[in-house]
Automatic annotation (TrEMBL):
Summary of the function given for this chain in its UniProt record: Catalyzes the formation of N(7)-methylguanine at position 46 (m7G46) in tRNA.
Native source species: Rhizomicrobium palustre
Residues that bind substrate: 139, 171, 209-212
Reactions mediated catalytically: guanosine(46) in tRNA + S-adenosyl-L-methionine = N(7)-methylguanosine(46) in tRNA + S-adenosyl-L-homocysteine
Gene designation per UniProt: trmB
Protein name: tRNA (guanine-N(7)-)-methyltransferase
Entry GO CC: tRNA methyltransferase complex
Amino acid sequence: MANEEGTPFQKKLYGRRKGPKLSAHKDNLRQTLLPQHRLNIVQGADPKSYFAVPVEEVWLEVGFGAGEHMLANARNHPKAGMIGAEPYESGVAKLLSHMEDDPPPNLRIHEGDARDILLALPDHSLAKVFVLFPDPWPKTRHHKRRFIQTEMLTEFARVLKPGGEFRFASDDAGYLGWTLERGLAHADFIWTAKAPGDFEQRPAHWPPTRYEAKALHGPPVYLSFLTRTKVTP
């Protein structure tokens, strides 16, 4: 698989993994609660098999931050399995602290790169993929570090079911334009916006996050793409 620069599918993870030292309580949650919800990746396995409870479909969140969006989805959609990837140790610890009193059985955590999960998934095995407020890597020389590349959209199209949804959100105009350009150009995706301003409205049932509320770089914009019902070979 090659990207638009012609280089192989990039498997290098950029950004930090460690932050300030965790509190004793959060460190204890990583030792006790995380093992109960850790995703044990099996090459080619149906992702529904990762859960201790029956689920009808599986959603993936790439870089879940503190986990508010994924945790709300897990509680609001008990028949859907939630898989989240987050390499930042403090983000995982925050999610664990949010869920410790009522841990949902339909949630699995990968403390690492989402590409580990994607490369193991069988074709057409996910219903939704979320990439919400990723690092925009604004400098031109760092654009190759952006998670959204043409090659990544191709991988999303492979793992999503026909008619599956890819949702992207950012408050960085440069990254929004970058993603929209590549999404519109991709043969396997259809942008769902029907009218001007649609992308400025948070989709219904979209759980808000603290980062979204900060809107550091500008008003949040929400892009939603559906895979075509007939996927290109």
